[in-house]
Specification:
It comes from Craurococcus roseus. The chain is α/β, with parallel strands linked by helices and 465 residues long. 43% of the residues lie in helices and 12% in strands. Strands 2-1-3-4-5 form a 5-stranded parallel β-sheet, sandwiched between helices. A 5-stranded parallel β-sheet has the order 7-8-11-6-12. Helix 4 links the parallel strand 4 and strand 5. Bound molecules: adenosine-5'-triphosphate.
């Protein structure tokens, strides 16, 4: 049993939007439906959702603005057939994440589900003994209700592991709810976690359940928990100790039955020593821990995961299944994977799209150039290129003579342009936290660089791949 993405459909399901709903359901999503934006908003206040699909026939701008006022953070996709371009632009300007043309394309919906809620269908793919040991330990710990701290570099699969623990636990039939603590500013994060009562702040026109209540009877994953500010750390600690939460503006605490899993790519103990993370909270979250090795520490997984992603992306794109050639595999094994499984997934996605002929050959493998300033690249020993072809594919030689910061800035700005200004997606591809990305962009702007803003995306393909 795996956790499902929760999708809220706003609009009539008799027509093409219903087709979109059925595709989402066939891809494993749990559906909820509302006839209009105000009843949709009421559902978001109650049970929340991972993704909203809202028919442009309804007032998407009103919905998105009301959600912002009420501090409800959930991606909204506007949908419609032959819509008026201005209506789409208005919706996106107001904060809708994307536009889905109707009749719906099954692959696009799959990509949107994946972007909103992560890959949810499978247990972790693995072949390396190092990973087998982690999964064995995870299986043993899953049955208890103890808090688990999952550590590992960005993109190693911490969320995948957390879902796996939930699926193996006694709470498997309950909800699995994940929240990225780095992705939201403090006030939004507080409301997102604990919910609020009517009148708690000026936009709070109705009460709303936070992630704690949404996860009641199930599991709550707090991703990038090290990024939480001290005031919220105190509030979280109280919630864990008392098993009850204080909603914003609430007069009475609310009891919750939630298992907490926390994930971090930081050294939390070092954060404790530097007085940035509360020691008592650290011990609460870290009753037991699971450390996910970096991908370069489990080479047998590189091959297994590459084959898995090659098959998955071939199927998703309607392309023939191709195996990796020996040379292509050699390139993958020689790369240090600073962005870990996420980087491998993106690399194989590109390779599947570029491949021709019977196999995925080395030419189709485009590896991220190692700039030294990128994520964890500085910390790893970069193996010598396996062949002259490797160096060419990496394109590193063209960078010699340039400063690391300069190359890093170009990589970040290029990636952001490629993602049409979408910060979340860019941070994901770069393998850095959204907060690090924001700080860097702030710096670049201060230096006078032009930083791409979020563009109105008329073609939703930006979300795929
Ligand atoms: N063992 C695995 N099997 C299949 N897919 C995996 C595995 N590990 C990671 N992935 C895929 O790699 C991507 C990154 O995984 P995930 O989001 O769990 O990493 P993370 O460590 O939580 O990243 P971050 O620190 O940035 O939050 C996801 O698309 C996920 O589906």
């Amino acid at each position: 049993m795996t956790a499902m993405a929760r999708v809220l459909i706003i609009g009539a399901v008799e027509a093409e939007l219903g087709q979109a709903a059925r595709i989402a359901q066939a891809r494993g999503a749990a559906l909820a439906q509302a006839d209009g934006v105000s009843s949709g908003l009421a559902r978001l206040r109650g049970e929340g959702a991972d993704l909203v699909l809202c028919d442009l026939a309804h007032d998407v701008v009103w919905l998105v603005e009301a959600m912002a006022r009420e501090r409800i953070a959930c991606p909204v996709i506007a949908c419609g057939r032959d819509p008026d371009a201005e209506a789409v632009v208005r919706a996106i300007r107001a904060g809708a994440k994307d536009f889905l043309p109707l009749p719906p394309d099954a692959d696009l919906i799959a990509a949107m589900l994946e972007a909103a809620a992560g890959e949810r269908r499978e247990a972790p793919v693995h072949r390396d003994p190092a990973m087998a040991a982690v999964l064995k330990r995870a299986g043993q710990l899953a049955r208890s209700d103890a808090g688990i701290l999952i550590t590992g570099e960005s993109g190693t699969g911490k969320e995948v592991l957390a879902r796996h623990v939930h699926a193996l636990s006694r709470r498997a039939k309950g909800p699995f709810v994940a929240l990225n603590c780095a992705a939201l500013p403090e006030s939004l994060l507080e409301s997102e976690l604990f919910g609020h009562e009517k009148g708690a702040f000026s936009g709070a026109v109705a009460a709303r359940k936070g992630k704690f209540e949404q996860a009641d009877g199930g599991t709550l994953l707090l991703d990038e928990v090290g990024e939480m500010d001290p005031r919220l750390q105190a509030k979280l600690l109280r919630a864990l100790q008392e098993r009850e939460i204080d909603k914003l503006g609430g007069t009475r605490p609310v009891r919750v039955d939630v298992r907490i899993l926390a994930a971090t790519n930081r050294d939390l103990m070092a954060e404790v020593r530097a007085n940035r993370f509360r020691e008592d909270l650290f011990y609460r979250l870290n009753v037991v821990s699971l450390r996910l090795p970096a991908l370069r520490e489990r080479p047998a997984d590189i091959e297994a995961l590459a084959a898995h992603f090659a098959a998955r992306f071939a199927e998703a794109n309607g392309l023939p299944r191709r195996a990796l050639s020996g040379e292509a595999l050699g390139l993958l094994l020689a790369h240090p994977w600073p962005g870990n499984v996420r980087e491998l997934e993106n690399t194989i996605h590109r390779a599947v799209l570029l491949a021709q002929g019977p196999a995925i050959r080395a030419e189709a493998i485009e590896l991220t150039p190692l700039t030294g300033g990128h994520a964890h690249a500085a910390a790893v020993a970069v193996p010598a290129p396996a062949s002259p072809a490797t160096a060419e594919v990496r394109g590193v030689s063209g960078l010699v003579g340039r400063k690391v910061e300069e190359v890093e800035r170009d990589l970040i700005l290029e990636t952001l342009t490629h993602c049409l200004g979408n910060r979340t997606r860019a941070a994901e591809i770069l393998g850095i936290s959204i907060r690090t990305l924001r700080n860097k962009l702030h710096e670049y702007r201060a230096q006078g660089a032009e930083v791409p803003g979020q563009t109105a995306v008329l073609q939703p393909y930006a979300m795929a791949g």
